[in-house]
Each structure stands twice: as C-alpha cells, then as structure tokens.
Specification:
The complex is a heterodimer. By secondary structure, chain A is α/β, with parallel strands linked by helices. Chain A has five helices and six strands. The chains are: A alpha/beta, B alpha+beta.
C-alpha cells in the first residue's frame, strides 16, 4: 500500500493506544503500529518510516532502548523519534520546552490534533 | 812600632831635603863655576859641556821690549839689559807683555850641543843664529793673537857654529808676571837627554805610586763604605798623582795629554790646592775627637778658596795665587797645632801622621817661597809622598787592629748563637749562601722525626720537605725574599709564614717559619737563617675552631631563625641577616642605629618582654653553662609598620660570678603559626561553645541520645536515655546488653531490627546514602520489666562506601503521647459520632423534613388548581401552603446559617430589588402590625416611594427577605402600641436601610444585642433572629448596627452593597426572558411514557399530578428494584428516579437500567433524571457517574419538571438548573453561567466530565470493556502484591484514558500509578480509587450507549 502521506510507525504496548492513533492520524499519515517494542528495529528497517512515535514505559524494552537501537543502526539512525507518554502531563511537557528526556516528546493527555501537528513538525524538521 | 815609623819618616824627610838640596845643588854648584851672561853676552868657551854638564844661560840678557826683532839681522838698537831668570815686570813694570830676548854665547865649537828649554808659561820662538830651533805656542803682539803653551824641551842645535846668537820671541799676555822666569840651559845633548829621562822616571814612579794607593783605597772603600777616611785618603792620593803628572816635567803631556796652557795651569794648580781640603777631611775622620768639626769646616772652606780663584782669567789668578798659596800651609799648621796634644796620648798612628804632616808642611813652605819666581811647587810631590806613606802605615796599623777585634767578636757571637740554637725549642735552618751549605739544628731534625744526630748532608733540597700544597707558595716567598735588596749590610727580617712540612714518618708538621737573612753591603744575602716553631697543635685547634665556626655559620644560615647577639659589656647588639629580612630590611642593613629590641616591640608586649628579659639576665647563682631561658612571644614592628609575631629564645653567657656577659637570642617568625593558632583557638572556642550548647541540649532535652560507633561497636547512652529506660541518669551502661537484641520489646524487635539493618545496608527507603533515619516507634524494655513507648529518629555518618561509621539516635519517650493519642482517638470517635449525629440531623432536616414538606406545599397547590374548593377552603389551603413554605424556608435557613458560621456558605449575589422585598415583608406582617395599631411608613431618600420604583442591592434575595422579616417583626414586637414604624431607605454608595421604632432595647441585652441566643422578654424566643440578621448582613458584604435609647427609641441600620445599574438591567432582562420561556414551555408535551420512582408515595402523588396525563403516561415505582421491573414492562422514554430509597437506591437502579438499556431491553433513547434532596456536588457527580443524564435537587417545582421534560424531548437546549430553591425563591431563575451539567460536553469544572469524540463512539464500548479488564487485572495484581504489574496497568490506563478523553479517569490512574510506584500496594488503600474508577467507567459506558443510540436515531 503506497500513498503520498508520510509514513509513521507508532509503538505502544497498549493496543488501545495504537488503535486510537491509527484511527485518528490516518487522515494525515500512513500509520503503522506495533505493540511490541522489540519489533521496532526490524519494522523501521523494512518500512522506512519518516518518524517513529514511541511510548516510553513499556514492558520488555522501554522507549529509551528503542531510541538507542534505532540510532545505533545506520539505516535507521536518521529517523526522528517522538516520545508519546503519560508519564508527564501536557503542562509538564510545556514546561520542559516540548522535550522529554532530552528528546521531542508529547503527553498522551494532549489533544490528538496537537500530537499530529507535532509529528508533522518533526518530519518537516528532518 | 810608631816610634820606629816616626823615625823612618824623619829619615825620609831628611832624605827628601837632601835630594832637594842635591837637585838645587846640581845647578847651583855649577853656577858657581859657570860663567854668567853680561849684557847679552855669555862666554862659555871655557865650559866643557861633556864634563861640566849643562851650563845655565843666566845673567843679563838684552831685551827688546814690545818688539820681535829679526833673528837674522844684527841686533837693533834700543835693547836694554834684563836679568835672566827673572820676570820682565821687575824691570819694565806691567807695560811689558811681549818682546825679544837676545843673547850671544861664545862657546867652544863642539858637536852635540843642545838647549834645555825650561817650562815657560808663555808663547815663545827660539832662534839660534837666525835659524828657528823651537817654537812653543805662538807669540804675538796682541793678547788675542797669542797662543801660549808649556814646554820643556831639549833642542839639539846640530851644526850651529859658535858663537851662538840666541834670539827668543816671547809673549805672555796671560800671566801677571811674565818673561823668561827660568833660565834655559846649554849642555851636551846626551847628558841633557839623560837628565830629562831621569826626571820623567821619577815623575812616573810617583804618579804610579799615588795612583795605585788611591785606587786600592777607593776599592777598599767601595766594599766598605763605612770607612770614609779611606775615601778621603784615596782622593788625596789621586790629587797628588794628578799634580805629579801635570807639574815639573809634564809627565802627562809626554803621555799625550795636550792641553792649552791656561787649562793646564788651572788643572795643575787645582790638583795641588785640592790636597789641602782633602787632607783636612781625612784628618777629621781619623781624629774626630781632636779636631772640632766647625773649625775643620772653616779650614776646608778657607783652603778651597784658592780653588775658586782658579775660575778667574789667567792674569787674575796668576796674580792672586802667590798670596793665596799660603792658606794650605796655614791649615796644615793649624792641624799640626791641634794634633800636637795627641802625641802625648799615644793615639794609634798619631805620631806617624804628625811626622808626615810636618814634612809636608816644611816642603810646602819651601815651595811656596819659590813659587813667586817660578810659578810652580817643584818639591810638593815629595812632601805629599811622605805624608801618604806615613798615613798608609798608620791606617794599615789601625785596620789590622780593627780586624782582629771584629774576628774576636764574631767568634764570641758564634758561640753565643750555638748556645741559643741548642737551647731553643725552635728548629733552625742555616744556609750559608757563600758556600751553599745548609745546616739543620738538632731540634729541627727531631721535629721532622729524624734522629738528632742524623746526617743531613744527603738531605734533599729544603723545599722537598715542604708539603706539596704549600711548596710553591713557600718557594715564591723565599725567592721574593732573596730578590729583596732594600737592606744594605746587616739583617733583613722576613715576615713569619706558616706552612706544613713532611715528617719522616709521612705525617704533617705545621710550622711557623721566621727567617732572618744576613745581607752584605750590596744587599745580597750572605746567610739565611730560619727558625721553625712547631705549631701543629695550634693549627689543629685553629682548624677545629674554623670548622666549628663554619658549621655554626651554616647552622645559622640554614635555620629559619634570625639571631641577635647582645654584648652586655659593650651594650651592642648584632643581628643576623635573616633577622633583618624578617623585619623587612635588606640583609646588609646597618643595624647600629637600631633602637633596642624593646622599642621595636608592639606596645602591648613590651613591658612583659622587658620584665622577662630582665629576669633572664639577672645574676645567676653560679657561672658556667646556662640553660636557655623561657621562650618569649611578642610582636616586632616591621619596616613597613606591620607587625610580625616572633618566637624568641635566649641564652645568656655568664662569667664566673654569674653576671651576664653576653645574651644570644634566636628569633623565629611565627606569624603564620600564630594566625593558625588563633584560628584554631577560635575554632576550639567555637567547638567548645557548640559542645556546651550540645551538652545543654542533650541534658535539657527530653530526648535520650544513643551514640553508636560503627568501628568499635561502642555505644554511649545519654543520661536521659538511661532515665527513659528507668535507670539512674548516671547508671553504668558498660554492661548493658545489645540494643537490638535485648532492649527492644520482643514484639517490635524483629521489625525494627530488619528495618535498621536495611537502613545500615543502604537498602531502606532512605536510599544507599541516606543519613536520616525516619522516625520509628517501638517499645523499649525498662529496668522494672515494663516497657516504654519511644519514638526513635536517627542520623548515620557514612564513609565513602556508604558504610555506617557512626549512628546517633534521638529517643523520645512517647508513652504519654501515645496515651494522649489513644485519648484523642476516643475523642475522635466521639467527635465522629457527633458528626454522624449532626449528619443525621441534617438528613432529618433535609430529607426527613423536606420530603414531607414537599407534599405539604404541593398538595394545597394541586387542590387550588382544581378550582373545586369553596373560597374559604381555598383560603385555608393557601394558609397551609404558605406555612409549609415557611417551614421549608426555616429549615433551609437554619442550614444556611450553619454554613455561614462555618464559613462554607457559597454566596451567590445578584441584583435584588429591596423595595419589592420590603413590600413583601410588610405584606406578610401586616396582620400582626394591625393588631398593635402600628403604622409602617416606608420612605426612599426622605420621600414616599414611587410606584414601580426599584432599588437594587448586590445581595441574595432570600437573605434580604430573612433580614427584613426578622427586623420588621422584632420592631413590631418592640414598638409601643399605636406608634409608627419608620423604614427609611437611603441610596448612597451603599444602600442604607434604617428601621426606627419608639421602643428601647432593654438595658440587659443592649451590649449583646447581636449575640447568638441573646433574647429578652420573649418566652419562645430562640435568640437567633437578630444574630442571623447580623450574620446575613455581614455575609453579603454589609453591616447591621443598632442605636437605642429610651428617649430616641431604637434605630437599626442595615447597609448593603449596591448593585451597579448594568447588573440591575441584566437582572431585569433575565426576568423578562424567563417569562418568555415560561410562555414557551406551554407548548405541547410529547406522548412519552414516564417512570417516576420514589419511596414516598406523596412525592409520587405530587409528581403524578405535576405531569399532565395525557399526553404523558406516568408509571410509578417505590424503589429501585420495582423501577427496573416496571421499566422493562413499560419501556419508558424518561425515568425520574429518587436517590435515597430502600431495597435498591437510585444509583444502583440507574446502573441496572443503563445495563438493560445497553442490552437493548430498554429504549435506547431513555433518559434518566435523578431527583434528590442532596444539593452537594459529590452526590451530583455520583449520580452522573452512575449514568444519569441530569440531576435535580428537591423539592422540584412543576415548572422545572416540565422544563426537564421538554429538554429530554429535545425541545429545549438546556435542562433546568439542578439546584433550585432553597436558595432561590424564584424557581424561574436559572443560573445561565452554569452549563448543562449532564451534557456530554466537556466541562472543566466537572471532574467527572468526559470529552467524547464522535469518531470514537463506535469504539467506546470495546475500549471501555478492555479498560475494565485492565482495571480488574490491576486489582488482582495489587491484591497479590505484584506492585510492578499493578503500576504498569495503571500507567497503561492513564495513557489510554488521556487519549480517549477520559481526563478524570486518566488523572486518577496517574495518581494510582504514582502510589504504586512508591510501593503503596495495600489493596485496601487503593480500593476506593478503584471503585471510583469502576463506577466512572460504568457511567461513561451507559452515557456512551445513550449517545450512540441518539446518534443512530439522529441518523
């Protein structure tokens, strides 16, 4: 399936989250999702997404590990990663200047439009 | 000997005299026989030259004065006779200066005649028979042309025949007296030659004799300068030799000395005259005691006077000499005269001298007599010879004697020296330069470690014995000494030297060498004697001293201390460079001008230091080595004015009597130490203060301290701790058992030990490096076997590895506190009971009273609406309704008052028309006022109010009504009958309402008029009325005051905030809108089935009456369960359900209904509205969560009910407000600011609100069920203690809820996650939150279902 829309990979251990994002972001992006963070590396290589939207607190492998694995692989290290997390509230992320743990991040509490806008910014930035 | 010599001399003198006589006689005796010339003619015909010898040509010659005649021509006239020999001055006076002599000799013609021409001092030409035979100089007529000369010549006449005519041209301008002063001789040529040779030989012998003697004596003087007599003698000899060579036969001339005549004369006379002063000098040296030096000098001067005359021109000195020549004989005569006495004293050689002098004098006198004629002293040489011989004899005799004496003296000295050499301790080296022999004294040999009689002849050079290091120095010094020639004769002492000599055994010998050299007159060293003194011990000790000094110097330099050295005797101090530097001066600073050290000290230290110093230099009990004094510390002023701290230690050097001679001080700059010390001292002071403070704290505190040392495992217990455990404060704790094992109560021991071990290991909640141990409570065992409750908080000191090194715990006895806590617990229980009671009261007030009141109020209304009652009955019913409303108001008011007092009353001000309220109140109390015949007068700003006039206050309607009603009723009661009540409304910035009546407030309660429960005169008064009025005025931002007096009556003044005109207008607008709405509500109702659920049948009745049927069909149920059954049967579109019901309450029933609805058992469009007498937000949220669409607060008016119906049917945008009365009398008022609470719209003020995305409606059921699943898992995990799983579930829930818009649930889950992350996994604690979430989800689900259906319906 090909389209003009930028392709993004959504990673969250909770299917409810990935479902929602697939539904809500479908208008703007070609959304691929996985609930297993260990697959991310392989998926990123094959799908070549333009951005990865990733949860932080996941069982087995957390967001930091995902990021590190991506950045260590020459094929995937250029892909920007957006942390999507409920660990911080919208206000806290704003106070942190839109960054979580030194990377672009956004709270799960933010409106979906904000999340979409943030992803397109990230892709445009690259 | 002398007499013999004298005799010899006399004999010699006689011989000389004899010889002279003979020499005279050799001419004179013949003159007697030889003829004499007469008038220019001499007849020698009878004279035989060969036999008779030479014939003198003397007699009367012819003289041609001032005329050189021609020798060849005959004799011219004018000649005059002249005596020869003789001076022409005798005949002619001074005019004669030149002229011609003429003589004719008649002789026997014979061969071999010769003329003997005497030594004439003139120029002459000799002619014989006209032939020139001899020229002597060049005679001339003028003095300038003349060249005089000396001449003694034998002129052979050769063949000249007899008679001989002799012409002599003669000129003599130089001499005072001239002419032919000597007569020539004519004789045999051979005889004349012999005579002349004899004379020359005699002269030669004499000259040689004199010269030799002179040379010898001068040479002798050359080597022995001291003998000046020898010098003068030599000079005398040379003078005599010179005269002898110049005079008589002119020996020097014959030897080649050709001089002009005058020079020759001067020299000749000088030599002769010089002998006299030389003689005088000689005699003076020889007889210094006999000849006074002054006289000698006078005679010397006198005898040299003729010498001076010789410098004059020849005529002058030749004229003067005949007189002056007598001075030398006079000197000699004086000498003889002076020496005459010496003869008697038999002085050595005096006689010989005397004799020689005498002879010389005799000869001189004789010669002087002859000089005037012949101008020479022909015999003086003989006199000189005599004197020279005599003098030589005498002097050699003297010399021999002197030498003998010297030899003896030398011998004696040699003996003495040998004795000394042997006796002295010094070794002697004696080098005889002349022979080159070196001799070493015995002592010297011993010094060098040889035998005293060792043979030194084979010894090497002296320098070989000198140590190699010193050798070159010594050699150079020695050579310098030899080269030095300053001394002449005698001794030369050399500066002593010290150097090392090599001993025979290879050792070293330090010697002090002192040398003396004997030097000759020329300065040359003749002998070199050196004395060596062994100074090895001295040198060694000197070496030691030097080493010691060097060491000391190094020590002084190496130390950082400066030194001062005070010489007590001289009172002078010297400081080392280091000390000067210490004070900021250059190291070479001259400290002579420095004041005493005390002047340099800081003024604070000066006196003490001075006293201490004085004590130190005080006279010591005994001499010898002293101990150093006490160290001193003081400040010294530096050059720049700052001070430096000095640590000074001194030691005094004392003499035998203990007096201080010298005081040496060492100064150490201790400023840094002092500063550190000061800092330390302050630190210590601080620490001590801190320590004391801490002690006080520990002592004074009610806290016991336990201090455990992790390294030694020693534990210290504070006295208070001991007390806590029931021991004496000073009990011995050494034997106390282990704290954890024994001291803690058995029930707590394990828990506390585990907790503490975790803390120590860094595994407690404090973290690996946590210092503070969070307080813990447990029991400690007491001495009496009981226990004490303590709270322990502690602090650990950890090292780098986190290991606890020290542990300090503060222990508080909390037995009392725990007892108090228990008491508090009990009190709390009681309080809770009270609260419960109060809540019960409230419940009674709200629910139990208000529910029946609804009926009481509603039923009369329904009755009246039937219009089937008689007018009286209707009136009565109206009274019932009003009374019911009043009771309701009272109940509500009491609740509001309670809230006001608690400060929890939520004021909702709005513009209130005070006039309207006032009119209402007045209408209400009119009947009461009429009974007392009271008039009520209302005025606005001092006038009657106009119809329709409004005065708006910013207040609450009901509160205003209550205040006014209360105040007016009280006023009516208080006013005397028939009086007038005045209500005066003033509209300023604030509204002011003054209520006046004639009665006065009783004195007793005036002060506490507004107090709660203050009442007077009323048997049924609660005392709440005035208080509540005052409270309400306050709560609305106003005030209520009272003024009363018997004369003036009572005036109560109420002030209230005035509403702004804009607010007033808005209020009017709202009212008109409400009227329109009410009009709109009149539109037909839908034909719905409505299910009313209430456990109160009256309420059901009222509801049934309010809901018009038809068009509605109303079903009822008395509890939740009945409602479920009924709903399933009747399939209602609207359910109105009560909250508090028996069997099954409204919330549960709602959930079940929603459940049924989801299952399709009930109409999808079914709306549920909850009615309840609770008017708090919590209940409202619970209702909405349970699935209600709207919530209404009881009592509910008919209008509200109908409006709700309209809203549910979709004919009205907003539902009526949830809360109606009690706050608002006017049911029509809706708080437009309040949003539609039950809507699915997002309301930030509502925590339970949910934001629904239309896109997600389809997914919501699945989502919600999955969330419920997760929630259950979370619950299970929490129950089983799997904190991490629980936390993860909470996290997942939080994230998804956020995304799906369930914000309240998301927040709840996040809070839950945090608690789980902090290991707070107690399910019991989580349960309320989990239940809340479950309920919320259920509510959301039911609402979602409704929304979904609605959407589907709309579609």
């Amino acid at each position: 399936m090909t389209s003009d829309k930028p392709r993004i990979l959504v990673v969250d251990d909770d299917p409810a989250v990935t479902e929602l994002l697939e539904l809500k972001l479908d208008a703007l992006f070609e959304v691929r999702a996985t609930n297993d963070p260990r697959e991310v590396q392989a998926l990123a290589r094959t799908l070549k997404p333009q951005a990865v939207v990733c949860d932080i607190d996941m069982p087995g492998m957390d967001g930091g590990d995902v990021c590190r694995r991506l950045s260590e692989d020459p094929q995937t290290k250029h892909i920007p990663v957006l942390y999507l997390t409920s660990m911080v509230s919208t206000e806290e992320v704003a106070a942190l200047d839109g960054e979580v743990g030194g990377r672009p991040g956004i709270s799960k509490g933010a409106p979906v439009q904000d999340i979409a806008w943030r992803i397109s910014q990230l892709i445009a930035g690259h | 000997v002398s007499s013999l010599l004298l005799r010899c001399l006399l004999l010699l003198a006689c011989c000389v005299a004899g010889a002279d006589a003979w020499a005279q006689g050799s001419v004179s005796p013949s003159s007697a026989s030889t003829p004499v010339a007469l008038d220019g003619r001499l007849d020698l015909s009878g004279h035989d030259a060969a036999t008779q010898g030479t014939a003198p040509l003397a007699g009367s010659w012819r003289f041609h004065a001032r005329r050189f005649i021609d020798p060849a021509a005959p004799s011219p006239a004018g000649a005059q006779p002249i005596a020869v020999p003789g001076s022409w001055n005798d005949a002619l006076g001074a005019a004669a200066g030149w002229g011609s002599y003429e003589l004719t000799i008649d002789c026997r013609p014979t061969r071999g005649l010769a003329l003997l021409i005497p030594a004439q001092h003139s120029a002459a030409r000799w002619f014989v028979n006209g032939q020139p035979v001899h020229q002597q100089g060049r005679p001339a007529e003028q003095a300038a042309d003349e060249q005089p000369a000396l001449g003694t010549r034998v002129v052979t006449l050769g063949s000249a025949g007899c008679p001989l005519r002799l012409v002599v041209h003669l000129s003599n301008h130089q001499q005072a007296r001239g002419g032919m002063v000597l007569a020539a001789g004519l004789g045999d040529e051979t005889a004349l030659g012999i005579l002349r040779g004899r004379n020359l030989a005699i002269d030669f012998g004499l000259v040689c004799c004199f010269a030799l003697l002179g040379a010898l004596t001068l040479m002798f003087h050359g080597v022995r300068r001291r003998e000046s007599a020898v010098l003068w003698f030599g000079c005398f000899c040379f003078a005599a030799a010179a005269y002898t060579g110049l005079a008589n036969d002119r020996f020097f001339e014959r030897m080649g000395l050709q001089l002009p005549m005058v020079a020759h004369l001067r020299l000749e006379y000088a030599a002769a005259l010089l002998t006299a002063p030389l003689l005088l000098m000689l005699m003076r040296r020889l007889f210094p005691r006999d000849l006074p030096s002054r006289a000698i000098r006078a005679w010397v001067a006198a005898s040299t006077l003729p010498l001076g005359v010789l410098a004059a021109p020849a005529p002058v000195f030749t004229a003067a000499l005949p007189l002056l020549q007598w001075l030398p004989p006079a000197a000699l005569a004086w000498l003889l005269w002076r020496l005459l006495p010496t003869l008697g004293r038999r002085r050595h050689g005096a006689r010989a001298f005397f004799a020689g002098l005498l002879l010389l004098a005799v000869v001189l006198v004789a010669d002087n007599l002859r000089f005037t004629r012949h101008f020479e002293w022909p015999h003086a040489t003989l006199g000189m010879l005599a004197f020279v011989l005599a003098a030589a004899a005498a002097m050699s005799q003297r010399l021999a004697r002197a030498l003998t004496a010297e030899e003896l003296r030398g011998l004696e000295q040699s003996h003495r020296a040998n004795l000394l050499v042997r006796a002295t301790k010094a070794g002697i080296l004696d080098w005889d330069v002349t022979t080159g022999a070196v001799s070493y004294s015995e002592r010297y040999r011993q010094m060098l470690g040889h035998a005293s009689d060792a043979d030194t002849s084979a010894w090497p050079d002296f320098f070989a014995q000198v140590h190699a290091d010193d050798r070159e120095t010594v050699r150079a010094a020695f050579m310098a000494q030899l080269r030095e020639r300053s001394a002449h004769g005698g001794f030369r002492e050399h500066a002593p030297m010290s150097y090392r000599l090599m001993r025979a055994d290879g050792g070293l010998l330090w010697v002090q060498a002192e040398a003396i050299a004997l030097v000759g007159a020329d300065g040359r060293t003749l002998r070199y004697i050196c004395a060596f003194v062994d100074i090895t011990p001295l040198k060694n000790s000197e070496q030691q001293v030097t080493t010691e000094r060097e060491r000391l110097r190094l020590l002084v330099r190496s130390t950082k201390a400066g030194f001062g050295d005070w010489d007590a005797v001289a009172d002078s101090v010297s400081y080392t460079p280091r000390f000067k530097e210490m004070l900021g001066y250059p190291a070479d600073f001259d400290t002579a001008q420095w004041p005493s050290i005390f002047e340099m000290m800081h003024a604070d230290d000066r006196e003490q230091a001075r006293a201490q110093f004085k004590a130190m230099i005080r006279r010591k009990p005994e001499g010898g080595e002293q101990e150093p004094g006490e160290p001193m510390s003081y400040r010294l002023q530096r050059r720049d004015g700052t001070h430096v701290w000095i640590h000074a230690e001194g030691i005094s050097q004392v003499d035998e009597e203990g007096r201080t001679r010298r005081f040496i001080t060492s100064y150490l700059d201790v400023t840094p130490f002092r500063e550190q010390e000061e800092a330390l001292r302050r630190q210590v002071e601080l620490t001590r203060t801190e320590q004391r403070r801490l002690d006080l704290v520990v002592r004074g505190a009610r806290v016991g301290i336990v201090d455990w040392d992790g390294l030694t495992h020693e534990t210290w217990y504070s006295p208070r701790f001991r007390e806590i455990r029931g021991y004496a404060p000073d009990a011995d704790t050494a034997a106390w058992p282990d704290y954890f094992k024994v001291m803690i109560h058995a029930d707590d021991r394990e828990r506390i030990t585990r907790r503490w071990v975790a803390f120590i290991r860094g595994k407690g909640p404090e973290g690996p490096l946590g210092e503070f141990y969070s307080p813990e409570e447990y029991r400690l065992l007491r001495a009496d076997g009981g226990h004490v409750w303590v709270q322990v908080s502690g602090m650990a000191v950890r090292d780098g590895q986190g290991f606890v090194q020290r542990w300090i715990a503060a222990i508080i006895d909390i037995t009392e506190r725990r007892e108090q806590a228990a008491l508090l617990e009990r009190q709390n229980e009681a309080l809770k009971e009270n609260v419960r009671l109060r809540e019960d009261m409230e419940r009674i007030g709200r629910h139990d009273l208000k529910t029946p009141l609804n009926t009481i109020i509603a039923v009369p209304r329904l009755l009246r609406e039937r219009n089937s009652l008689a007018a009286d009955d209707a009136e009565l019913i109206g009274i019932v309704e009003r009374a019911g409303l009043r009771i309701l108001n009272l109940v509500n008011l009491s609740l509001d008052l309670f809230r006001m007092e608690q400060g929890s009353y939520g004021l909702r001000p709005q513009p209130v028309d005070l006039l309207e309220v006032l009119h209402t109140v007045v209408a209400d109390v009119r009947a009461h006022a009429d009974t007392k015949h009271l008039a009520i007068d209302i005025q606005v700003d001092g006038r009657d109010p106009v119809a329709g006039e409004t005065v708006h206050a910013w207040a609450e309607d009901l509160l205003c009504y209550s205040i006014f009603a209360n105040l007016v009723k009280n006023a009516i009661e208080a006013a005397p009958e028939g009086t007038c009540l005045t209500v005066h409304l003033r509209c300023g910035e604030q509204l002011e309402l003054a209520l006046h009546n004639e009665g006065a407030v009783p004195e007793a309660i005036r002060e506490r008029f507004f107090d709660k429960y203050a009442t007077a005169g009323k048997s049924d008064g609660t005392g709440l009325g005035t208080y509540s009025a005052w409270l309400m005025a306050r709560i609305q931002g106003g005030a209520l005051t009272m003024q009363t007096s018997p004369a003036e009556g009572t005036t109560l003044t109420l002030t209230l905030q005035r509403a702004t005109p804009a607010q007033a207008r808005a209020q009017q607008q709202r009212q008109s809108d409400a009227l329109q709405r009410d009009a709109a509500s009149a539109e037909p109702l839908p034909t719905w089935r409505v299910l009313a659920v209430d456990d109160d049948e009256f309420n059901l009745l009222v509801m049934r009456r309010y809901l018009p049927s038809p068009p509605l069909t109303v079903f009822t149920a008395v509890n939740g369960r009945a409602a479920l059954e009924q709903a399933l049967q009747c399939q209602p579109e609207l359910v109105l359900i009560d909250l508090d019901m028996p069997v099954m309450d409204g919330l549960e029933a709602t959930r079940r209904l929603r459940e049924q609805q989801r299952q399709g058992a009930l109409p999808a469009a079914m709306r549920i509205v909850m009615l309840s007498s609770h008017d708090d937000d919590a209940t409202r949220r619970r209702a909405l969560d349970a699935g209600c669409d709207h919530y209404l607060c009881k009592p509910v008016s008919k209008e509200v009910l109908l409006q709700t119906l309209q809203w549910a049917a979709g004919r009205r945008a907003e539902p009526p407000p949830a809360s109606m009365a009690p706050r608002s009398m006017s049911s029509a008022e809706a708080t437009s600011a309040e949003g539609p609470a039950g809507d699915l719209a997002h309301d930030p003020a509502d925590p339970a609100a949910v934001v629904f995305d239309p896109d997600l409606v389809d997914r919501m059921p699945a989502f919600l069920s999955s969330r419920r699943q997760l929630l259950t898992e979370l619950e299970a995990a929490a129950r089983e203690g799997r904190g991490d799983d629980a936390r993860r579930n909470a996290h997942r829930l939080a994230g998804s809820f956020s995304l799906y818009g369930l914000l309240w649930a998301a927040a709840q889950c996040r809070a839950l996650e945090k608690r789980l992350a902090a290991d707070d996994v107690a399910l019991a604690a989580l349960q309320p939150a989990l239940d809340g979430l479950h309920a919320h989800l259920a509510g959301v689900q039911s609402r979602t279902a409704a929304a979904t259906t609605a959407a589907a319906g709309a579609a």
